[in-house]
From TrEMBL:
Superkingdom: Eukaryota
Annotated compartments: Endoplasmic reticulum membrane; Membrane
Catalytic activity field: tetradecanoyl-CoA + malonyl-CoA + H(+) = 3-oxohexadecanoyl-CoA + CO2 + CoA; dodecanoyl-CoA + malonyl-CoA + H(+) = 3-oxotetradecanoyl-CoA + CO2 + CoA; a very-long-chain acyl-CoA + malonyl-CoA + H(+) = a very-long-chain 3-oxoacyl-CoA + CO2 + CoA; hexadecanoyl-CoA + malonyl-CoA + H(+) = 3-oxooctadecanoyl-CoA + CO2 + CoA
Cellular component terms (Gene Ontology): endoplasmic reticulum membrane
Alphabetized GO MF terms: fatty acid elongase activity
Membrane topology reported for the UniProt record: Multi-pass membrane protein
Keyword terms: Endoplasmic reticulum, Fatty acid biosynthesis, Fatty acid metabolism, Glycoprotein, Lipid biosynthesis, Lipid metabolism, Membrane, Transferase, Transmembrane, Transmembrane helix
Name the record gives this protein: Elongation of very long chain fatty acids protein 6
Listed PANTHER family: ELONGATION OF VERY LONG CHAIN FATTY ACIDS PROTEIN 3, FATTY ACID ACYL TRANSFERASE-RELATED
Biological source species: Chanos chanos
Length: 268
């Protein structure tokens, strides 16, 4: 990317320029605990919905699922490009340490809108599970646990504008851009090569490992006084990312490595 192209990537669109992040942050400081209400209703639907559908025929909802996944894919792709361009700008001008500790992702040009959009999107993303329940597909613990904890942590962290958020947002947008594009293609009936699913899960594992690393760096650099965060936030982030790392690694092994070994054994 040459200098002109890079400057264009940081040019704000009108809706980004006029977005008032102060109002959004103040709202979140006053209302972040409502995320528990969303999660409570979500948990009730997860278990109540499965019970409700037990004796009922599954719903196809394929066209609606394509539109849902495609919408989230487009949103995630744009979010990854916008936050990624700002992340590259910080890395390029201030270095890696500043990219971890910088709070400007919450109020900087380009990124301020997408930081708020990121945390707010965690509520409607709960809708992923609606399709699984109504289509009577297998709902694993990792799926609903991940949705609940990401929503709670994202809203909890945005109100305090903690260090590390830029990396967390950029990584998640990027992984979701791949993941929802894959879901949209599958829902549309396209035959997606199996290695694509493996790559997506591998990127999720890498994301969790990087999340742990960023949390550790925030704790280390916070002692110097220039990496604003809180001990309780770092503890929750570390526990969350560690649990994700273990669960996604287990999922990868069970879904791809163990099945491959079973097929080899049957062939032998």
């Amino acid at each position: 990317m040459n200098e002109t192209e890079f400057q264009l990537s940081l040019t704000e669109f009108s809706f980004e320029r006029h977005f008032d992040e102060r109002v959004a942050i103040e709202w979140m400081q006053e209302n972040w605990s409502k995320s528990f209400v969303f999660c409570g209703l979500y948990a009730a639907f997860v278990f109540g919905g499965q019970r409700f559908m037990r004796e009922r025929p599954k719903l196809e909802l394929r066209k609606l699922l394509v539109l849902w996944s495609l919408s989230l894919a487009i949103f995630s792709i744009i979010g990854a490009v916008r936050t990624g361009s700002y992340m590259f700008h910080v890395l390029r001008t201030s270095g890696f340490k500043q990219s971890v500790c910088d709070q400007s992702f919450y109020n900087g040009p380009v990124s301020k809108f997408w930081a708020c959009a990121f945390v707010m999107s965690k509520a409607p993303e709960l809708g992923d599970t609606v399709f699984i329940v109504l289509r009577k597909q297998r709902l694993i613990f990792l799926h609903w646990y991940h949705h609940i904890t990401v929503l709670l942590y994202s809203w909890y962290s945005y109100k305090d504008q903690v260090a590390g958020g830029g990396w967390f947002m950029t990584m998640n947008f990027t992984v979701h851009a791949l993941m929802y594009s894959y879901y949209a293609a599958r829902a549309a009936g396209l035959r997606v090569p199996r290695p694509c699913a493996m790559v997506i899960t591998a990127t999720q594992i890498a994301q969790m490992a990087m999340g742990l690393a960023v949390s550790a760096l925030v704790y280390s650099w916070m002692q110097d006084g220039n990496c604003p965060s809180y001990i309780d936030n770092i503890v929750w982030a570390s526990l969350m990312y560690l649990s994700y790392l273990l669960l996604f690694s287990s999922f990868f092994y069970e879904s791809y490595l163990k099945r491959s070994k079973s097929k080899v054994s049957k062939t032998d």
